[in-house]
Amino acid sequence: MMVLPRWRWPRSIPMPISATTTKTSRFRAYAIAKAARNRKSSGALRAIALLVAAFAFLPGGCASTSLAPSVTAQQATIERNDSRAVGSADNAESVGLVDAQSLAPGLQLDIRYAGSDNFVGAPIDGYHAPRCLLLRPAAQALARVERDLRTQGLRLRVFDCYRPMRAVRHFVRWAADLEDQASKPIYYPRLDKRELLGDYIAPTSGHSRGATVDLTLERCDGATCAPLDMGTPFDFFDSRANTDAADVTALQRGNRDRLRAAMQREGFRNYPLEWWHYTLQPEPSPGRYYDVPVR
Ligand SMILES: C[C@@H](N)C(=O)N[C@H](C)C(=O)O
Ligand SMILES: [Zn+2]
């Protein structure tokens, strides 16, 4: 039976002020709580911030039920976004996407959605080759990160780059199929599948704008490379994957910080719920979603 998962407000659509939703409110609350923790704020301010954060992290978030539009609205969102995609182009280069590995030959590619080693358990629509395509400014910035890390004996292992919109639709279909729980033990053991869409899998993903990348660090000794321990694998949908999660070891924290520092130096910003997800700021093409296949 296909059941649509709980609807969440898409990041691409401005949200009415009164409409606090799981995604945005959690994100803001997270930032507020973190800022309060880092700053030497007064006890009262800190208590308020932590209360806001705790409320936002309650299952179901704040006002999502009163907002919850129908399935048709979710479909409309997807279609509206489709109309912003770059028309009939089916050639990535013609829309300005470049092969990041051609600028940074040292990038290690482990493009999970081009094969079956991912949470869906099958190759994802739109991925016909294991390539890392990005808009040129993002690819250039990633190449600078890679050069910088190489001097420290480290390499970047890339899991995903530009993601065609048809791939995102494949994820949404997978998320709606609640009978398929095959990957739960490995990818979301502590979450209900209905919780994934929104926080951990975006129904309208920044990856489709061509300046977002999922990646990790690895240390190489000659030709042998081993990924650094980040506390969770890639695409482990769980609060332990939140970049500043408290329940990781000092070593894992250090590795996450090292990746974040290297990426930030070249203008990439981390998504706090996933230690592996980075977007170049400012985005080269912030309002544009692409749907050309990766070939
Ligand atoms: C699915 C995961 N790799 C990811 O990229 N998640 C973010 C939220 C996204 O889908 O944009
Ligand atoms: Zn990502």
Automatic annotation (TrEMBL):
The keyword Cell wall biogenesis/degradation applies. It comes from the Bacteria. InterPro entries: A_A_dipeptidase (IPR000755), Zn_M74/Hedgehog-like (IPR009045). Keywords: Cell wall biogenesis/degradation, Dipeptidase, Hydrolase, Metal-binding, Metalloprotease, Protease, Zinc. It is an enzyme of class 3 (hydrolase). Zn(2+) binds at residues 207, 214, 277. Its EC number is 3.4.13.22. The record marks 163 as: Transition state stabilizer. Binds 1 zinc ion per subunit. The keyword Cell wall biogenesis/degradation applies. Its cofactor is Zn(2+). The active site is at residue 274. This is D-alanyl-D-alanine dipeptidase. It comes from Montanilutibacter psychrotolerans.
